[in-house]
Amino acid sequence: MNGSNSADSGSPSVRRRSDATRTAILAAARERFAADGYERATIRAIAKDASIDPSMVMRYYGNKEGLFAAAVSVELELPEPGSLPRHDIGRALVTRFLDLWEENEVLTALLRVGATNQAGAERMQGIFREQVMPVALRVCPDPEQAPARAALAATQLLGLALTRYVLRFPPTVALARGEIVAWLAPTVQRYLTAPSP
């Protein structure tokens, strides 16, 4: 077999181009969904932002729903509760969420969309149900209370994110990470592990 001009879809160079295209599409989609919301964001605008033809977006993701699901795919990688002292779970969660909000625009985009769009809200609910609830189930004193306790912890984490990364309240933005952890960790800890009031 001599060198053929036909593109081998399994070749490393084609895979690299494909990966680069997907990365550009997802980055443009996150920005567009965050700026315009789910309803107003269009495949055409996202493709333009990514400097590609709209047909490429459709090729990779099928439709806007598929693109949205891929663009806001989030793996929180929360610490295993069994790997931490029970009294330190609040600090670990607040620290991890700060890392996520500051390093990953996906959660910020999802929060913006989720505040105004049902698909975004359902996606955010799913992330918390699938990834935060198991933590609450392992550490709370009464497993039946785990959903309420996880929801209360989410009020703190999402409230922080909304005021620091979306609405950008100056006093919240000005807080150092250590201050945020010192203020929020005891509250998240109490919600998850304290006896019922």
TrEMBL record:
Annotated source species: Streptomyces doebereineriae
Protein name: TetR family transcriptional regulator
DNA-binding region: 42-61
Domain of life, per lineage: Bacteria
UniProt xrefs under SUPFAM superfamilies: Homeodomain-like, Tetracyclin repressor-like, C-terminal domain
Keywords on record: DNA-binding
InterPro entries linked to this entry: Homeodomain-like_sf, HTH-type_TetR-like_transc_reg, HTH_TetR, Tet_transcr_reg_TetR-rel_C_sf, TetR_C_16
Database matches in Pfam families: TetR_C_16, TetR_N
Gene3D superfamilies in UniProt: Homeodomain-like, Tetracycline Repressor, domain 2
Domain HTH tetR-type: 19-79
